[in-house]
Amino acid sequence: MIKRALLMATAMSTAGLMGANAAQAEDLTLCWAAWDPANALVELSKEFEAESGHTMNFEFVPWPNFADRMLNELNSGGKLCDLLIGDSQWIGGGAENGHYVKLNDFFEAEGISMDDFAPATVYAYSTWPKGTPNYYALPAMGDANGWFYRKDWFENEEIRAAYMEETGQELREPETQMELMQIAKFFQEREIDGQTRYGVSIFTERGSEGITMGATGALYAWGFKYENEPGSYDMEGAVNSPEAVEALEFYKELYQCCTPPGYTDAYMEQSLDAFKSGQVAMAMNWFAFFPGLYADPNTGGDTIDFFVNPPQNVAASTLGGQGISVVAYSDKQDAALEYIKWFAQPDVQAKWWELGGYSAHNSVLQGDGFEESAPFAGDFLVAMDGVQDFWQEPAYAELLLAMQKRLHDYIVADQGTAQEALDKLIEDWTEVFEDEGKL
Amino acid sequence: MSAHSVNEPSGRQKWIAGTLVIAYALITMIPLVWIVATGFKSPADAISYPPKVVFEPTLEGYVNLFTTRTRQTEDYLAANPPQTWYEEIVRQYDMVIVGPSRYGERFLNSIIIGFGSTFLSIFLGVLAAYAFSRFRIPLKDDLLFFILSTRMMPPIAVAIPIFLMYRQLGLSDTHLGMILLYTAVNISLAVWLLKGFIDEIPREYEEAALIDGYTRFQAFYKVVLPQATTGIVATAIFCLIFSWNEYAFAVLLTSGTAQTAPPFIPTIIGVGGQDWPAVAAGATLFLLPVMIFTVALRKHLLRGITFGAVRK
Amino acid sequence: MTDTAIDKIAQRTPTRVARKVRGLSDRAIAWLFVGPTIFLLLAINIFPLIWTVYLSFTNFRANRPNREVEWVGLRNYERILTDSDIWLNMQATAHFLFWTIVFQVLIGFALAYLINKKFRGNDLWTTIIVLPMMLSPAVVGNFWTFLYQPQIGLFNYIIAFFIGADPSSFEMIGSVTLAPWSIVIVDTWMWTPFVMLICLAGLRSIPDYIYEAAEIDRASKWRQFWTITVPMVLPFLMLAVLFRGIENFKMFDLVVQLTGGGPGSITELASINLKREAFEKWRTGYSSAYAIILFVTVFGLASIYVKALNKVKER
Known about the structure:
By secondary structure, chain A is of the alpha/beta class. In chain A, 48% of the residues lie in helices and 14% in strands.
């Protein structure tokens, strides 16, 4: 402790001297969700504090309240956050409503090139309008929805034999969505080591974005598209295609057949909980949690392994992840930009990955030995190759809430059919786009 | 009431009534007792099946409530032995305390906003109530009804324009903004209650004072106020309880700086899902003052919660 | 609450006395004293209300300050009143309102009746019973989600113990059939004491001589209960229903913490839906119209009810 403190102190004092002639030392606040990678970022940022002389404060909001609270903060022009690691879908609103500072000039002046970052992440986390070279964020944290399972159970000879007997197939990492359900059904209410186990934990949360993020995993794998032509807002026949209906029916069946009891409002935390407490054989969650899961003393290490969202008709994963933006209402934008500049450096990005953050920098992702650096690193690259994101429109919140409602009504509350749910969703979305003047 | 009243229930009736009421009271206490008890459980005990009634008490919930913690490597833990009893509790999970949590701040906000708005409501309320009680005011009944009717608005409905207004004025997420808002909500209760209390003070006292050469002001604060002390205290506690417990405005209009405890407590999360012992500990500390007030307020309870519409 | 003759005389007196004394005139003091309160209410209640009325005719969005605001006339109202989903929210609200009032009136009255038997220690037990309603609904609602968890939740465990079922075989919050009842249970737990207190005040206001007279007439206890106790308590009970009705129509904090409106939209009460429209979707104009509709509904229903209440009182 003392040694560490001394080191810090010397580092601080030299930094203070250097910083003095650079700029005045500021108190910066970075806002993000409260989860594993946030702790890693605190650790990483200590270097920035030492180098720049600025002090970093953090406001981490639990996921269920994160969007609500941060969007409220932005909409009320609040100065709480100087830097915000906001969800990918906020970029449209952040840009159009002037919440985020446009970073193009800054990138140019500092020689930061977006070509150094994985294209999928730049497209999703930084650009608005989508795909144009207008940048409002630097890709901070690559992420996608993936799966993990109890490797020890999958390798257990007795269980394997039982599975073979029941299904006539080898028990393995599922290669299709249907196979995933078959495995889940096999594990549902099975006694293992004297305890009743269940099939999967999936996202069913109603309040924020949970059930949408979970169900789109199935929808994308069946080939779901938001529009017939990208940019046309023509959704009839795309959103409610027969494949989409089938995918939604699949997700509902998966929810009904194979989740633990009381699983009606579950998101990240509940999914982790179910897995760590040994309730389920398989679970879905964001890659962001995988380092923590792997390190878990009880269910990590040899007892866990990971797989990418299995394809059905196509290979695709639901995109997560965030870019880091400078909040337009901040009085300390210069210092905030300094942080981004520091964060974009390849060696900082390498350390970021080491500490448990998912760097989106090519030097890390394409670096030697990246795939071997963690049991989920290779899966991460595969997943990021096929990511799809929800609407990133400025009206994203309305679009999301409509989908949350329709999906939860159908899947959990068991109202109506999948076809009706998707038809109604098109109605809701059409209304939103009409209000937006886009239809 | 005389003991010979025909309405006096028989001993047997009393016994039955007592048993039923006590049974209800005990059942109704279970959730409250459970909150307090869960605060002293370890996370594992809190979520054990079947629910544990007997358990080994620990302060883990309270430590978790007031600190933020992070996992550390074994080397680090070995090199830095815990210094305090609370460090030691955290160490069981290979964690170290990295700083205080936000609970203290949120609690302090509740105190500042709660007491600030209570003071303001009482100050304005006493003045208005006195005027309504003693003076002829044009459209008095209408004004009084208007004051009461402001409580019929769903808070979310009022919150929309307040949000816009506060954004313009820079009052969003400030203590002042919340104090003014809670005062506006409380003042209806304050005026109605205080008017009732002041009505009960005989006018003769003030008139005597006026004849003795006091000004109205002097008569008001030297004669009426001291007489109304009990009423003022009771009203103040009701105002405090409202602003203490309020959730809808707090969750919509505050985020970082002026957030009070009610929107904060439900967001206390642990390693996986809600950290129930910490939530329960936070709830216990937060509910305790109100429980004490309730006992203290027994006599005025009815008047306070019904705007004085029913007097016992 | 009308002024009695004595009041009127008393009011006149100080004015005359005051003329003789120094300082501000009574009239000035009256305005000085009432002014700040009226000002505050105008600024934080009435002005916002008028603003809401204005906004309800526009397509304004609070999260798009740059967008042009258009006057849309009655379109927002039309959309709300023809939206079948909103009628479902209203049904959920009505279900909640109706059953909470039924249970609270029945249990609250019964408790008050029993407490009025004045057994030893009734004051202490009354205070204990009253505790839940003084607590923060959001905090209490959040904790009840814990009590309602299948398996580990105390509520499920106790119920399962008594009916002999498996505690994980049912879930209060997650199930479509039970969720509406789960919010009714917690609200009843919290607010029955309120109805009880008011009933108690009613019972205690009945003078003994009425019963004594009935006794002389040899009316049975049963008859006394229906011809004296119930009619005399009724105005109080109706007042309790009014207060609970208004509160539960506005209900937000408790239920939003308990179920968040789920599963699906089964327990999405009007206020919860309004919050989503206003502060998550940011359809400010639309939700202003929604707010006005709700306000007018409460106000209208309450006024009709108060008229009925006054009739009962007059009898």
